[in-house]
Structure formats: structure tokens, C-alpha cells
């Protein structure tokens, strides 16, 4: 068992998996990935790391198994929602509709890069672009993600095939290459465009990217981008420390 005075557990529940991060204060000790709320595995991990408090962010409505598990263990539990206290200010007019993954990614970015103007990009199912200036979330945009664009081209046409990401020349010389290059370079130029626009207004801006396609797109873009696959977990831990 890890012997830390105050071990936190941050849980990011997505549509297809559950990511767990154990923190000793602000230091990430270990991460795990579950396909479903496996109570046996959760019990083993809690015995190993002995968390003192837990925070959960979920994009699904199926949070009851996790809530019940930690309730039975009498571990203080925070379920992130629109009323949770946050370590940053925001100007969002509809906070109740602001994605919790976006909230956590922003909190993670300001934790890793304090006192810095930030563009936070999450390249997942959708691609989100969130601007943080002087510790205030100014606003952001949502765009279709990589696989969503591939799916749309296939589903909304009769002849275009469904393909996946992969290497491709800038100019396609076949239909497969044309689709792949059009989608992939289109997103890369979209990312570069957002970085350019934000950097023009806020010199010294840092760009942080997370999400399943982050490593893929960082090789396509022209700008310097810091990639952190655990950004949401860092943010959840920061919110837990701030809220409890």
C-alpha cells in the first residue's frame, strides 16, 4: 500500500472507458484504465493506494455504480457538476451546458502552466478549443473530431468509403487519400488557425493539447504544442483540492 498522508483519486468516466489517476497532493502517482466499473479491480486499487477523497467527472449518466462503491467505503466523494467550485473564473453564459471534460482540461492546464495565457485543445470525439486569459476562461468552440468527420463523409454520401486515420500526402491521388488528407490536414490547419488567431491577440500564449488524437495531430501542425494525455486528471485533482 502507498503510504501518503493525503491521496486523491481522480476519475474521468468516458463513453468507452474509465481513467483513474491517484495523486499525492499535486503529484500524479499512478494511472489506470478500466473498461467498466469493475468493483473487484477498484477495491484492489483502493487497497493499494488508499485514497482519502475522490472526484468523478462523467460524460455518461451511469455513475451510480461508482457513487455506491465509494459511499460504501465512506470515502469523501465529489461529483463534478455545474455548481462545483472551480479554481478559475469564466464568462460562459450557460455554465450548466459546459462540458465537464472541458472544465477539467482547463483546470489541468492552469495547474501545469500557472499565470500563463492558454489555448486548451481536446482532440477527442469532438475537438474543443478553450481560451484562458488571466486565469479566466474567456470562451471556446466545439468542432467535429477526426473519426466523426470520416463517419459523416461516409454516412452522408452514397459512394465515399469509411476510412481511418493514417499517413497520407498533402494532395491525395486517390479517393482514399483525398478523404484522409482532406480531413487530417483540414483539422491541422484548423488547429494552426486557432493558435495563430489567439497568439496574435495574446502574445506568449501557450497551447496545450489532450485527447485521444492529440499525439497524432501534434505531428501535423506547425506550431509548438504541449501534449499531456492526463490533463483532465490533473484538472480534476486541482478541482478536488480547491472544492473540498
From TrEMBL:
| Gene3D superfamilies found in the cross-reference section | 3.30.420.40
Q: How is the cofactor bound?
A: A monovalent cation. Ammonium or potassium.
Arranged from A to Z, the UniProt key words for this protein are: ATP-binding, Coenzyme A biosynthesis, Cytoplasm, Kinase, Metal-binding, Nucleotide-binding, Potassium, Transferase
Where is K(+) annotated to bind?
122
Q: Where does substrate bind?
A: 92, 99-102, 175
Spell out where the chain crosses the membrane. none
A Pfam family annotated for this chain is: Pan_kinase
Q: What does this protein do?
A: Catalyzes the phosphorylation of pantothenate (Pan), the first step in CoA biosynthesis.
Which family, according to UniProt?
Belongs to the type III pantothenate kinase family.
This protein is called Type III pantothenate kinase
Q: Which organism is it from?
A: Thermophagus xiamenensis
Lineage, uppermost ranks: Bacteria, Pseudomonadati, Bacteroidota, Bacteroidia, Marinilabiliales
Amino acid at each position: 500500500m502507498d503510504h501518503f498522508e493525503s491521496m486523491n483519486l481522480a476519475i474521468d468516466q468516458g463513453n468507452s472507458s474509465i481513467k483513474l489517476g491517484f495523486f499525492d497532493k499535486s503529484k500524479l502517482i499512478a494511472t489506470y484504465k478500466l473498461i467498466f466499473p469493475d468493483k473487484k479491480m477498484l477495491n484492489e486499487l483502493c487497497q493499494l493506494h488508499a485514497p482519502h477523497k475522490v472526484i468523478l467527472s462523467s460524460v455518461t449518466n451511469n455513475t451510480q455504480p461508482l457513487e455506491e462503491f465509494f459511499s460504501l467505503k465512506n470515502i469523501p466523494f465529489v461529483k463534478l457538476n455545474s455548481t462545483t467550485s472551480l479554481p478559475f473564473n469564466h464568462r460562459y453564459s450557460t455554465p450548466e451546458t459546459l462540458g465537464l471534460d472541458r472544465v477539467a482540461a482547463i483546470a489541468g492546464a492552469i495547474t501545469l502552466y500557472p499565470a500563463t495565457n492558454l489555448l486548451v485543445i481536446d482532440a477527442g470525439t469532438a475537438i474543443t478549443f478553450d481560451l484562458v486569459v488571466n486565469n479566466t476562461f474567456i470562451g471556446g468552440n466545439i468542432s467535429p473530431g477526426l473519426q466523426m468527420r470520416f463517419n459523416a463523409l461516409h454516412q452522408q454520401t452514397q459512394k465515399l468509403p469509411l476510412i481511418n486515420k493514417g499517413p497520407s500526402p498533402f494532395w491525395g491521388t486517390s479517393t482514399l487519400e483525398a478523404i484522409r488528407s482532406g480531413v487530417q490536414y483540414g483539422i491541422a490547419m484548423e488547429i494552426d488557425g486557432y493558435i495563430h488567431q489567439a497568439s496574435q491577440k495574446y502574445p506568449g500564449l501557450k497551447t496545450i493539447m489532450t485527447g485521444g488524437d492529440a499525439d497524432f495531430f501534434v505531428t501535423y501542425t506547425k506550431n509548438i504544442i504541449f501534449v499531456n494525455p492526463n490533463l483532465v486528471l490533473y484538472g480534476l485533482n486541482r478541482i478536488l483540492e480547491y472544492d473540498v
